[in-house]
Amino acid sequence: MTNTPVFSERTEIERLNEFASVVTHNLKTPIAAVKMMASLLEDVSSLEEAREIGAELIDAVENLQEYYGEMEKVYRSIRQPEDPPVEVSIRQILNEVTHRMLPIIENVKAEISVDFDGGEWIWFRELSLNSVLQNLLSNAIKYRREEAVPKIHIRTIDRGDMLELQISDNGEGIDLKKYGDKVFKLFETFSANKDASGIGLFVVKNQIESMGGKISLISELGVGTTFYLEFVKASNSTNRI
Questions:
Q1: 3-state DSSP call for residue 201?
Q2: Which of 25, 73, 90, 139 has its CA 20 to 30 A from that of 153?
Q3: Are the C-beta atoms of residues 60 and 72 closer than 8 Å to each other?
């Protein structure tokens, strides 16, 4: 894979502005639907008709509640958390994530290999690192090629003050010529997979950037994807989890 890496480096204000713009736009249609169904109740001619409209109204409100829950998660990923980072082991958190995902990994017979020769300790928030690794591993499995055994390789490289984490897979891949500028955008999807939401990579990017890191990727359709994550490297054992 020889594609030029796609980087994402933005300030918290820029991320919040994008978030506000997307959420405002996406709320227009469901709110209009709720308003329309509520207005229909004024002209119902029977109890049965009122019940049908009421049921549709409840569904619309529940969809709004679900959307609100997802947006709350995204918002938290953008804002700088108050809890301070600690020295955390990527290996340890990865073990926790793969253990939690073991039924899924075994079900698709995914093969995961690791190489921590470059190091494993970084300054980060434990819960955020859990989220980052689970999102990227889930994507590697979710967007696998049906004809190939899913293979995921994880390794670290010492980059001086930074530690680079690479997560490679042999999945569907992404057409970066077509979607390169949209990969980390909220609600952008690049697969026919029904479970694609366009939220995961946006959240991952914000969690990494909020800690002074970077994320990029190279990808090729039908070959796979490699994500490059840069973290501030931990240099001593103080505050290790």
A1: helix
A2: 73
A3: no
Spatial contact of 230 and 213, defined as CB atoms under 8 Å apart: yes
CB 143 within 8 A of CB 193: yes
Tell me if residue 238 falls in helix, strand or coil: coil
Cα–Cα distance measured from residue 11 to residue 228, given in angstroms and rounded to the nearest whole number = 19
- Give strand pairing partners of 154: 114, 167
Q: What topology does CATH give the domain 1-241?
A: Heat Shock Protein 90 (3.30.565)
Asked if 118 and 141 count as a contact pair (C-beta separation under 8 A), the reply is: no
How high is the pLDDT of residue 8? 45
Structure tokens at 60: 């619309």
What's the farthest any 2 CA atoms get from each other in the chain?
A: 74
More confident call, 201 vs 18: 201
Which of 46-60, 81-95, 101-115, 183-197 is most confident?
101-115
Give residue 222's region: left, alpha or beta (phi > 0; psi -120 to 50): left
For residue 111, the cross-strand partners are: 151
- Please compute the mean of the pLDDT values over residues 31-41 and round it to a whole number: 80
